[in-house]
Amino acid sequence: MRVAAPPLRSSRRGLLAGVGAAAATAGLLHPRLALAKGGENLPPNVPEWTRMLGAGVSEKPYGNPSPFEKHVVRRNVEWLTATEQSSVSFTPLPDLEGIVTPSGLCFERHHAGVPEIDPQQHRLIIHGMVDRPLIFTMDDLVRFPSVSRILFLECPANGGMEWKGAQMNGCQFTHGMVHCCEWTGVKLSTLLAEAGVRPEAKWMLVEGADGAVMTRSIPLAKAMDDCIVCYAQNGERIRPEQGYPVRLMVPGWEGNVNVKWLRRIKLGDRPWQHREETSKYTDLMPDGKARQFTFVLDANSVVTFPCPEKPLKFGKGFYEIRGLAWSGRGRIKRVDVSLDGGDNWQSAQLQEPVLSQALTRFRLPWTWDGAPALVQSRAIDESGYVQPTIDQLRAVRGVNSIYHKNAQQTWRVNPDGTVNNVQIL
Ligand SMILES: Nc1nc2c(c(=O)[nH]1)N[C@H]1C(S)=C(S)[C@@H](COP(=O)(O)O)O[C@H]1N2
Ligand SMILES: [Mo]
Prior knowledge:
Cofactor: Mo-molybdopterin
CATH architecture of the largest domain: Alpha-Beta Complex
Bound molecules: the ligand Nc1nc2c(c(=O)[nH]1)N[C@H]1C(S)=C(S)[C@@H](COP(=O)(O)O)O[C@H]1N2, molybdenum atom
Organism: Vineibacter terrae
Structural class: mainly beta
InterPro entries: Ig_E-set (IPR014756), MoCF_OxRdtse_dimer (IPR005066), Mopterin_OxRdtase_euk (IPR008335), OxRdtase_Mopterin-bd_dom (IPR000572), OxRdtase_Mopterin-bd_sf (IPR036374), Sulfite_DH_SoxC (IPR030835), TAT_signal (IPR006311)
Domain Oxidoreductase molybdopterin-binding: 111-273
Protein name: Sulfite dehydrogenase
Number of strands: 23
């Protein structure tokens, strides 16, 4: 069978015309009609996979991605940490679409590795300034009224290698300490009501069951507002790396306080001043003082296409710029994209639904003329906060910080279509 050129072009056109704004791009891509010359699996040949039976239903009781997607994996940076257990792996943002991160691709940040916890033997203790100290089994937790929310989680060290200049030539590494999943569990306020909060309680200590015994202090107001004690992620039980069998989700707040393998909650009247809120997870300011308890994550965004891992490989012509934006303060209101390093801006299209404290996908059609370009995105959230330039952020924060680097990212597109991480000073 031979497919002639005209019908192929007109069916393409029909397809694009059906999707509104995309109609403007009809005919711009000029896909080439490449026919098979030998025995390849290309038209007009019948591919080999069409001529045989496929795998049966129970060969893979738990499914995996196609073997052709083997390159889509979490990666770490070997020189960044001294051990594999106290380390971080990065979400492959450039390979992802939409807003939900597949569970197996969520970045991981562990301070003492991933414990293997038997849910039958795991307990959550609530004590301190409560009327009735309580110990919950996993069955107890699942029995309570439940809630689900799609939430981003970002390590405040995301982008922390870029304070003094562009360093990591890959979007996975400059921005991959963020994931966005559907989380299900019981509202922490429900459990605290069960225990009875004493009036003098103002803070809460949360502690993990891993070897790091991760401990953080959180104001009680946040605990009562929207924290969720979660046992499910993207519809199934939480992955071991993300805190199986139970973790705390603290919407919009720095990743570190989202304690995994949650085993203990204590109420008190002041913060505990643990290591992770004094020596670590504080922001060293230009005057030499350290800022403590920077809980809320300010708006951030990044263009995930094009980026160093995803060059413009078709030469000049049509491309769709794609990216992600998020804010700990609520919904993303607008994302602007610049192609000339911040001189001119265009508003990108936001993919619905735009959810509070979740990743938001933005897109902008672009016809590249082959000239060098400086591609940037700038997120504006519903509080009116505008994502700063790296200069603006450094003016306030200096360059000695590690955490909370949310400056606009610049990708330089070179005439050959390759893309580099640069900073405009
Ligand atoms: N118990 C425990 N909880 C923890 C950690 C940890 O090492 N132990 N790491 C924290 C840090 S620093 C971050 S950024 C997030 C990472 O969550 P993730 O592994 O699901 O990406 O978990 C937090 N919760
Ligand atoms: Mo973190």
